Amino acid sequence: MDCDTGIDDALALVYLCSQPHVELVAVTSTPGNVDADQVAQNNLALLELCGRTDVPVAIGARKPLQIPLVTTPETHGPQGMGYAELPKARRGSEPTDAVELWVEAARARPGELTALVTAPLTNFALALRAEPRLPQLLKSVVIMGGSYYYQGNTTPTAEWNTHVDPHAAADVFAAFARQPEARLPIVCSLETTERIEMRPEHVAALAEAAGCSAPELVLPEHPRGQRSTAPSALVRQVSDMLRFYFEFHRDYDQGYVAHVHDYFAASVAAGTAWYAARTATVHVETEAPRLLGTTVADYRGLWGEAPNARIVSDNRPAEAFAELVSALGALARRLD
User: Fold this and answer.
1) What is the DSSP letter of 158?
2) Residues 43, 37: Cα–Cα separation, whole Å
């Protein structure tokens, strides 16, 4: 998993830790929601919270390929974890660069690994430069990013991850042109990730599934920044992250909800989510200032270019949240 942790990245990572059939080979850290060092600290702390100190964490790029880094403290909080205050991890990042780790792992286990990227595509683009055979070496690739025939969440036309490093995104899609359809990246874009809309009742259901004796209430009428007192550490941290995210979405007139984009991508990568996808040729705009990071999909072959992506076109939000509540509730009980 390559991430820029971030509240929804955190939820995705915790979800993967809950899955007994998932082997987390490594978590690599890309700058985006916060800088790369803070991303790594968040990843280390989350893995420790989940009892997964066996999973290596590495830092790769510290800035996008060609443009300055922009972070989002207003969306995810100064440290990327909303109101959650995770204890500092007792271990540090790997000395190995994230790109080296990607390449070494793919070469050592050809055809076995799924790459899940919930961050700007900087590290993946650099890994492709270092090893152009990655499209053949990886079993599959799942990317959260882009918006197609849908309003952007950063500019009128651009999604956050792609907007942070459009040049990296363009490089990645170019690298997958002319690959067999089964090897094309599965792209979870805003059209379907914004359907994964978390609400206060999901937090309450999670606490109940975790065995918490008192209801976990995260409500719009509460004071800003109220903190959880849940007895489960996992529930408490997740609740404090999500309260911040709910407040952010409300501040931007989207309701007291949270779009947990990256959890959906993680469930696709883990094979636990139903989805439908359409093959397309993706173009990423890297020149026009107002359209920077805009993604366009040619579904009908009008450009006469080879497809380079499978874009998710449908999903089942109710099933996704039933899976999330059950999985995180079971993990919380095991940890407690």
Assistant:
1) B
2) 10
Q: Are strands 57-59 and 27-29 parallel, antiparallel or unpaired?
A: parallel
Nearest to 56 by CA among 26, 20, 11, 84: 26
Asked if residue 276 lies in contact with residue 205, where contact means CB atoms within 8 angstroms, the answer is no
- Is 0.85 topped by the overall pTM? yes
Among candidate residues 100, 159, 107, 123, the one with its CA nearest the CA of residue 2: 123
Structure tokens at 24: 């987390």
Residues 328, 274: Cα–Cα separation, whole Å: 19
Q: How many CB atoms are located within 10 Å of the residue 174 CB?
A: 14
67: helix, strand or coil: coil
Considering only CA atoms, which of 148, 192, 159, 153 is closest in space to residue 320?
192
Interhelix angle for 7-17 vs 261-270, to 10°?
A: 30
* Digit-coded pLDDT (tens) for 128-153: 999 999 999 999 999 999 999 899 99
Task: Round to whole Å and give the CA distance between 106 and 133.
Answer: 9
Distance of alpha carbon 71 from the chain centroid: 15
Handedness of CA 80, 19, 196, 299 (dihedral sign): positive
Q: What span, in angstroms and rounded, lies between the C-alpha atoms of 305 and 308? A: 9
Alpha helices in 183-316 (DSSP H): 190-193, 200-209, 233-251, 261-270
Burial 71-98 (b: 16+ CB within 10 A, else e): bbeebbbebbbbbbebeebeeebbebbb
- Alpha carbons within 13 angstroms on the beta-carbon side of residue 193 total 34
Smallest Cα–Cα separation from 20: which of 52, 48, 43, 46?
Answer: 52
Reading the block at residue 144, the tokens are 């959260």
Sign of CA dihedral 231, 234, 240, 243: negative
* Interacting residues of 65 by C-beta distance below 8 A, sequence separation 6+: 122, 125, 126, 165, 167, 168, 171
| pLDDT per position as a tens digit, 23-75 | 999 999 999 999 999 999 999 999 999 999 999 999 999 999 999 999 999 99
How far CA 46 is from CA of 36, 116, 283, in Å, comes to: 15, 17, 35
